[in-house]
């Protein structure tokens, strides 16, 4: 059974990139959210096995969304997608329960490594 | 009446009633006349300060003139009004029994206030105007509102309440 | 790589982001200290980079990457966004635009960007030495592990209690990107398995990424070596993890770094281990933390509105309110229920409009404060002093016009503190003070005003020096000079023509004295005063009038009257039994969590007409002022609300224990308690 993934990023472009990598590796993308608030809603609806979460987004940022999702599902598997200079935020996210993080721009193998480790 | 009489010789006055007497305040000191709305009591203020009201978003203090002039209290009626006056840049509302007319008074018709025992009251009165059958007491708003006096009164009151 | 299907989207999004970058850079130039703007630009640049890299537009990606570094440097206070830097950044954006345009017209987006990249690199590295200054020399990659006495004892004790002591050497993957984050994750894993006793390089060095790829941890745990290794390898971007048992018969060599670590650990007597890298706890990392906070806040879309338009809006609205009042009257007189209903509805809506308009002009003072940490930092570096800035109450809101004007005076006061107040580290040491001086910037509401305090723990004001200068400039006559109290002398600082700096340093301006500060503040309708204690510090207090300020309160009922208690004063609300009230010296008190708290019955305190029956249970609001507390007896709690503070006006000044008023949703006025006055 394919692993269900929810992709969260405010740039349509990035979402498409990640989706590409995931689909080519037999993951099932069950949803795409453009901001943290949407992410929380879609998580509740689709109950994915994994979430890729951008950190900086409008409406509600990734870390807040992460916390909200964790409240709803403490076992939620969330991987943060960060930028180079966001070290502090990444640490915050890990503290808040993110399983791992990947840095943009993505390399397919890094993305897969992180995903597989988190699912293990 | 000669139309060429200068404004200086004429006072335009708003007339209001307290008990049986009529009083006047100059129109240029009056901002508006309102109906009595909910008054929020403010503790530790002189007896005649009824409290404050919400006047179009501005918190405005209200004085009960009956109390200020030591006339016995009466319930508010349909006619009761609050006259909002401006003195020294401060807006204050005065509760009166009724506010009726706006009239012109020739300054020649104004006489100095009569002597009253207990000089405080006299200070409020600027003069008395005789108009046909009416006697109008013209007020010195500065003295009615005078913060210094108010402070004195406040001190007196807080001294007595301790 | 199938570019084409993404091309259109790429061009659209890139163009949008470039526009945003341009606009924000313009804003940044006007507000060089505004980290929020830098964050926005950074975000856009970063997104651009990601897209470009993935699409394979290398020149675009490389230029954006370099720009990102510079922007990152700016927002971490390592680079100052001065006009030279801005020029380079603007030039980069121009190049970026050119490349995107090229791509849009079917080209490859190639461009020789080596020159501009070079310039950006210079900007980036130009102030890099600042980083090295604070974190010391570069640490060599591998070091022999040696233990000091303390560590050996710990390890020995562990052995006695059947714990294992391992030295774990971790190698991160060569293409690791956020090293400190990975280190954090490794530490997290290790701390779940046991206790970290030692780390080489030290925790601080690891946090600052002062290492290549390797680091070694000494761990006390009951787990097996294999187990530990497995756990560590689960963390991404970890290449290898070597777990060896610790040999503690190594001679304790005194290495300088070791000693420092020992001092650190000795400072934590109760704990047995090195504290794991706390995320961004140092004051020097405040900017990063702040950007975390600011991006954690909802990024609401905003537009700029001309203040004059807001004013017109306010005025028009007030006229609308007058008409509303008239309509209400008329509807009462006409007694038409339809009319009354409609007017009531209109009143409710206009009431809401009123609140919105009032709050539109309110801005948290943080807007002004947020450029100060950087300023203090660069100033103190320049003057070779160590200064830390504490900001309290940045969320205090002020009317926009006041905020615009208060910035300059505050800058001046802060500069003053750093320049004349805080002493150089040597002097401080000799005086027995900590080397790092403290400046506290505090904003809060109290009574009818907003207060801003600037205090430092520097050398205080030199009375004699000030007097001398004042005498010299004729501000004070010799006869009067002797009579002046200390405070009066300090206040002389605000007189024009006085500057007690030995040189008019560039920092505090060319003779632009505190008189300018005073004038500015007074023009805003406020006052400024100063107090000082020789050798201990100086304290400036700015008092600004309340135009519009918003505070959170708890509304309570006292008999039939409604009062508002500022939330900042409230510790708790409670319901107590009448029987629990005790008497001490004729004062009613209760036991609140072990403390004796005096009871203040608001009904009698404010002479409120009694309309309610007495009860066996009293509702109380526990408030505090500093260390003291009081329990205010009310009839019931209505609830928490944000209200607009309104002045009681000049006529009713100084009503005891009442700091102002507010207009409730129902249009009635409620009085706001001044808890500070209630608690003697």
UniProtKB/TrEMBL annotation, chain A:
Signal peptide: none annotated. The modification 4-aspartylphosphate is found at residue 54. One of its GO terms (biological process) is phosphorelay signal transduction system. Keywords: Phosphoprotein. Residues 4-119 form the Response regulatory domain. It holds the Pfam family Response_reg. Coiled coil: none annotated. SUPFAM superfamilies: CheY-like (SSF52172). It comes from the Bacteria. This is Two-component system response regulator. It comes from Alkalicoccus urumqiensis. The lineage of its organism: Bacteria, Bacillati, Bacillota, Bacilli, Bacillales.
TrEMBL record, chain B:
One of its GO terms (cellular component) is cytosol. Residues 10-150 form the CheW-like domain. InterPro entries: CheW, CheW-like_dom_sf, CheW-lke_dom. It comes from the Bacteria. The keyword Secreted does not apply. Keywords: Chemotaxis, Cytoplasm. Its main location: cytoplasm. One of its GO terms (biological process) is chemotaxis. It is found in: Cytoplasm. It holds the Pfam family CheW. SMART domains: CheW. The keyword Cytoplasm applies. Gene3D superfamilies: CheA-289, Domain 4 (2.40.50.180), SH3 Domains (2.30.30.40). PANTHER family: CHEMOTAXIS PROTEIN CHEW, CHEMOTAXIS SENSOR HISTIDINE KINASE-RELATED. This is Chemotaxis protein CheW. It comes from Alkalicoccus urumqiensis (Bacillus urumqiensis). The lineage of its organism: Bacteria, Bacillati, Bacillota, Bacilli, Bacillales.
UniProtKB/TrEMBL annotation, chain C:
It catalyses: ATP + protein L-histidine = ADP + protein N-phospho-L-histidine. It comes from the Bacteria. It is an enzyme of class 2 (transferase). Pfam families: CheW, H-kinase_dim, HATPase_c, Hpt, P2. Keywords: ATP-binding, Chemotaxis, Kinase, Nucleotide-binding, Phosphoprotein, Transferase, Two-component regulatory system. The keyword Cell inner membrane does not apply. CDD domains: CheA_reg (cd00731), HATPase_CheA-like (cd16916), HPT (cd00088). The lineage of its organism: Bacteria, Bacillati, Bacillota, Bacilli, Bacillales. Residues 249-300 are annotated as: Disordered. Its EC number is 2.7.13.3. Residues 298-548 form the Histidine kinase domain. The keyword Nucleotide-binding applies. Residues 249-262 have a biased composition (Basic and acidic residues). One of its GO terms (molecular function) is phosphorelay sensor kinase activity. Residues 1-103 form the HPt domain. Residues 550-680 form the CheW-like domain. The modification Phosphohistidine is found at residue 46. InterPro entries: Bact_Chemotaxis_CheA (IPR051315), CheA-like_dim (IPR004105), CheA-like_homodim_sf (IPR037006), CheA-like_P2_sf (IPR037052), CheA_P2-bd (IPR010808), CheW-like_dom_sf (IPR036061), CheW-lke_dom (IPR002545), CheY-binding_CheA (IPR035891). One of its GO terms (cellular component) is cytoplasm. This is Chemotaxis protein CheA. PANTHER family: CHEMOTAXIS PROTEIN CHEA, SENSOR HISTIDINE KINASE CHEA. GO terms for biological process: chemotaxis.
């Amino acid at each position: 059974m394919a692993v269900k993934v929810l992709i969260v990023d405010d740039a349509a472009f990035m979402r498409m990139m990640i989706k590409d990598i995931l689909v080519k590796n037999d993951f099932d993308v069950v949803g795409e959210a453009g901001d943290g608030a949407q992410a929380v809603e879609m998580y509740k609806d689709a109950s994915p096995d994994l979430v890729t979460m951008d950190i900086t987004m409008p409406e509600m940022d990734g870390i807040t969304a992460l916390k909200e999702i964790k409240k709803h599902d403490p076992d939620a598997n969330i991987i943060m997608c960060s930028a180079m200079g966001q070290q502090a935020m990444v640490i915050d996210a890990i503290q808040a329960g993110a399983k791992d993080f990947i840095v943009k721009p993505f390399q397919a193998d890094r993305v897969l490594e992180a995903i597989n480790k988190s699912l293990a | 009446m000669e139309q060429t009489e200068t404004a200086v010789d004429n006072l335009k006055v708003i007339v209001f009633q307290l008990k049986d007497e009529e009083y006047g305040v100059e129109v240029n000191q009056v901002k508006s006349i309102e109906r009595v709305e909910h008054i929020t009591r403010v503790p530790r203020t002189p007896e005649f300060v009824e409290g404050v009201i919400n006047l179009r978003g501005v918190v405005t203090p209200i004085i009960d003139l009956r109390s200020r002039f030591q006339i016995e209290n009466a319930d508010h009626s349909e006619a009761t009004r609050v006259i909002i006056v401006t003195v020294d840049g401060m807006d204050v509302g005065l509760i009166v029994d009724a506010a009726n007319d706006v009239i012109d008074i020739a300054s020649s018709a104004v006489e100095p206030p009569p002597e009253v025992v207990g000089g405080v009251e006299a200070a409020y009165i600027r003069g008395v105007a005789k108009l046909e059958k009416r006697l109008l007491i013209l007020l010195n708003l500065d003295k009615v509102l005078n913060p210094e006096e108010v402070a004195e009164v406040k001190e007196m009151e807080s001294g007595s309440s301790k | 790589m199938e570019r084409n299907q993404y091309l259109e989207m790429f061009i659209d999004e890139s163009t949008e982001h470039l526009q945003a970058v341009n606009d924000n850079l313009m804003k940044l130039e006007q507000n060089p200290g505004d980290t929020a703007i830098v964050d926005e630009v950074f975000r856009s640049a970063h997104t651009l980079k990601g897209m470009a890299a993935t699409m394979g537009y290398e020149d675009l990606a490389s230029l954006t990457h370099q720009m990102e570094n510079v922007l990152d440097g700016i927002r971490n206070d390592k680079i100052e966004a001065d006009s030279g830097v801005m020029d380079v950044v603007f030039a980069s954006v121009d190049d970026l635009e050119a490349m995107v345009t090229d791509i849009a017209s079917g080209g490859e987006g190639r461009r020789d960007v080596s020159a501009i990249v070079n310039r950006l690199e210079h900007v980036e590295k130009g102030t890099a030495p600042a980083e090295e200054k604070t974190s010391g020399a570069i640490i060599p990659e591998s070091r022999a592990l040696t233990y000091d006495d303390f560590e050996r004892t710990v390890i020995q004790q562990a052995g006695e209690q059947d714990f294992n002591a391992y030295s774990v050497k971790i190698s991160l993957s060569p293409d690791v990107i956020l090293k400190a984050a990975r280190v954090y994750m490794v530490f997290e894993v290790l701390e779940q398995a046991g206790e970290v006793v030692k780390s080489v390089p030290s925790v601080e060095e690891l946090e600052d990424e002062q290492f290549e790829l390797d680091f070694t941890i000494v761990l006390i745990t009951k787990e097996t070596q294999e187990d530990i290794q497995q756990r560590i390898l689960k963390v991404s971007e970890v290449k290898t993890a070597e777990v060896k048992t610790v040999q503690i018969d190594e001679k304790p060599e005194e290495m300088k770094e070791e000693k420092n670590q020992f001092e650190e650990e000795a400072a934590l007597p109760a704990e047995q281990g090195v504290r794991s890298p706390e995320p961004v706890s140092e004051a020097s990392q405040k900017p990063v933390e702040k950007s975390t906070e600011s991006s954690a806040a909802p990024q609401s879309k905003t537009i700029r509105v001309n203040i004059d338009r807001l004013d017109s809006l306010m005025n028009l609205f007030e006229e609308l309110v007058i008409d509303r009042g008239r309509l209400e009257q008329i509807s009462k007189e006409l007694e038409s229920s339809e009319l009354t209903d409609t007017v009531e509805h209109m009143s409710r809506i206009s009431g809401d409009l009123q609140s919105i308009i009032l709050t539109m002009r309110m801005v948290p003072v943080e807007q002004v404060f947020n450029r100060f940490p950087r300023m203090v930092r660069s100033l103190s570096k320049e003057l070779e002093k160590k200064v830390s800035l504490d900001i309290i109450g940045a969320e205090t809101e002020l009317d926009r016009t006041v905020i615009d004007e208060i910035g300059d005076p505050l800058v001046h006061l802060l500069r003053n503190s750093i320049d004349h107040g805080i002493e150089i580290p040597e002097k401080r040491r000799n005086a027995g003070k900590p080397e790092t001086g403290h400046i506290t910037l505090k904003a809060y509401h109290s009574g009818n005003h907003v207060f801003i305090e600037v205090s430092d723990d520097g050398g205080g004001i030199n009375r004699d020096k000030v007097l001398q200068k004042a005498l010299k400039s004729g501000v004070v006559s010799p006869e009067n000079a002797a009579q002046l109290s200390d405070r009066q002398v300090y206040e002389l600082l605000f007189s024009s023509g006085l500057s007690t700096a030995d040189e008019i340093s560039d920092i505090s301006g060319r003779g632009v004295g505190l008189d300018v500060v005073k004038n500015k503040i007074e023009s805003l309708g406020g006052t400024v005063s100063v107090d000082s204690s020789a050798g201990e510090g100086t304290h400036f207090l700015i008092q600004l009038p309340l135009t519009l300020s918003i505070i959170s309160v708890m509304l309570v009922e006292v008999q039939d009257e409604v009062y508002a208690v500022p939330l900042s004063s409230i510790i708790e609300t409670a319901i107590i039994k009448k029987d629990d009230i005790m008497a001490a010296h004729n004062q009613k008190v209760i036991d609140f969590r072990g403390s004796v708290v005096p009871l203040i019955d608001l009904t009698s305190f404010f002479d409120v007409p009694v309309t309610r029956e007495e009860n066996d249970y009293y509702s109380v609001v526990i408030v505090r002022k500093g260390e003291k507390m009081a329990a205010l007896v009310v009839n019931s709690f209505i609830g928490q609300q944000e209200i607009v503070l309104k002045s009681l006006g000049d006529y009713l000044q100084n009503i005891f224990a009442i700091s102002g008023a507010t207009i409730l949703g129902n249009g009635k006025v409620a009085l706001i308690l001044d808890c500070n006055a209630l608690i003697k």
